[in-house]
Amino acid sequence: MAQFGWAYVNCEDGVVGAEQGVRYVSSSAVTASSTFIYDVDNAKVTLDGDMEINGAITASFFIIDQTEVLSGSTIFGNTTDDTHQITGSLFVGPSASAPVFRVDPYASQSITTGFRVSYQEITASGFTSSNDSYIIGIGGTGDIEYRIHSASVAGVGAMLIVKDEAAARGAFKITLSASSGETIDNSSYYELSGTNPAISLYSDGSSWFVF
Predict the structure, then answer these.
(1) Per residue in 170-193, pLDDT tens?
(2) Residues of the chain with CATH 2.60.120
């Protein structure tokens, strides 16, 4: 068998297509696309057109210069330690012109067309609110003792609403007890009496206050 020491092949005359274009085979001929460019000097790939990827994309960051870039079902994050940070305005709803919820960073406000919060019904003593609580409806009959969870756990600015929903509590009362070492309006407990009373509470991070 013959042996070859080296060979030199000059393919310049046989190469067709755009400069820096990614080479591909078309009808048994090698060509290069002017819409799919690889700039080796700057380590940059440029695609002018659509791309379909059957798999994951991993990137250090994204730069998006389109207004409408996402469609279909999209999930951002899948664990509780994921952090999502948006600098700018936020619009949520059927369209940007008719949002159900939006955030205005210039006014430091969030605006919503509707508002629904958590509701809990309590009909007996021995229960305690939590960070999941917002409106607590007290039913049942007779005296009811309900414990308010720690203001330090709730955090500054947390709010609770407590309402007596009983049709006829009569001379009986509802007692709201503060967590150990904390107070409700500077007292270890707060009593609701009379016909269907209600109070609103807010936390300063160490105690609860009625407002």
Answers:
(1) 899 999 999 999 999 999 999 999
(2) 119-210
- Residue 9 pLDDT grade (very low, low, confident, very high; cuts 50, 70, 90): very low
3-state secondary structure of 143: coil
Q: Considering only CA atoms, which of 197, 205, 211 is closest in space to residue 179? A: 205
Where does the pLDDT of residue 168 fall: very low under 50, low under 70, confident under 90, or very high at 90 and above?
A: confident
Pick the closest to residue 35 from 14, 56, 51 (CA basis). Answer: 51
Distance between CA atoms of residues 117 and 206, nearest Å: 23
As a CATH number, domain 119-210 is 2.60.120
Q: What is the DSSP string of 96-108?
A: TTS-SEEEETTTT
